């Protein structure tokens, strides 16, 4: 999985997070009790909460990882892209683009996002679902980060969104696994984005961003479209669509890498 500077872009979304009342720090179980009341107010049943919070304790590895993060790329664009836009990845992405040609055409018509951009994101994030999507229990990860007081409102919101994913039946608790900031699935959505942008594109009644390629690609396109992607317009550096990709990742180097990968897929 591409290192997304996990503590990273989530902090930059803090302005969008609603206010939550649970008090960070202090006794962890007391904190979970307060979160449970907030979650119930957001439509999560007591049964789902009990299952998700059973035996829960803070994860010290998550806190240690979060505290040592750096929020900027240390490499130049050239050095960074050189290790990620590689022939084996491009070759696999081209093969998958052919395999999913009909699906990608349908998504392009509906959302206006070019297939090469979707394939670039899908490849860079998790090697098209074959790489590391993260193995950490999302509820424990987010409860740990929410209990820590540095960005508690943000992660309280993400924790409640994770509980809403369980409430909707999109993923079972055993499959709600993710990375060090709680990102889920083949293109690494935070739970709030999962709830806001997730699309049931295979029509099975659930948004499954871990296993369903149609859901993964359509949801990724939906995120970009909802945030202003202009169909048929250029997406290179300096364009409006390049700016829209800030909603995917704020790093300019990362977005330039997406563009470079997409251009390789056109060759």
From TrEMBL:
NCBIfam families: MltB_2. It comes from Pseudolabrys taiwanensis. This is Lytic murein transglycosylase. The keyword Signal applies. GO terms for molecular function: peptidoglycan lytic transglycosylase activity. Residues 1-21 form the signal peptide. It comes from the Bacteria. It holds the Pfam family SLT_2. Keywords: Signal. Residues 28-235 form the Transglycosylase SLT domain. One of its GO terms (biological process) is peptidoglycan catabolic process.
């Amino acid at each position: 999985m591409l290192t997304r500077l996990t503590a990273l872009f989530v902090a930059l979304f803090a302005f969008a997070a609603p206010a939550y009342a649970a008090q960070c720090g202090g006794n962890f179980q007391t904190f979970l009790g307060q979160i449970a009341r907030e979650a119930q107010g957001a439509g999560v049943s007591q049964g789902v909460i009990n299952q998700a919070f059973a035996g829960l304790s803070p994860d010290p590895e998550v806190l240690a990882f979060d505290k040592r993060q750096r929020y900027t790329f240390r490499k130049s664009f050239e050095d960074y892209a050189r290790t990620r836009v590689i022939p084996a990845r491009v070759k696999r992405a081209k093969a998958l683009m052919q395999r999913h040609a009909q699906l990608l055409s349908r998504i392009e018509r509906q959302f206006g996002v070019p297939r090469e951009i979707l394939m670039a994101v899908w490849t860079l994030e998790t090697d098209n679902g074959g790489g590391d999507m993260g193995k950490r229990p999302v509820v424990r990860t987010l409860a740990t980060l929410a209990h820590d007081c540095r960005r508690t409102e943000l992660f309280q919101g993400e924790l409640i969104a994770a509980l809403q994913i369980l409430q909707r039946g999109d993923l079972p608790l055993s499959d709600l696994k993710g990375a060090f900031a709680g990102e889920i699935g083949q293109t690494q959505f935070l739970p709030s984005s999962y709830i806001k942008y997730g699309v049931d594109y295979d029509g099975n009644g659930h948004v499954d961003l871990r296993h369903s390629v149609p859901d993964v690609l359509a949801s990724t396109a939906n995120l970009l479209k909802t945030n202003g992607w202009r169909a048929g317009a250029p997406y290179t550096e300096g364009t409006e669509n390049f700016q829209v990709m800030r909603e995917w990742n704020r790093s300019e180097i990362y977005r330039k890498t997406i563009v470079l990968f997409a251009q390789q897929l056109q060759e």
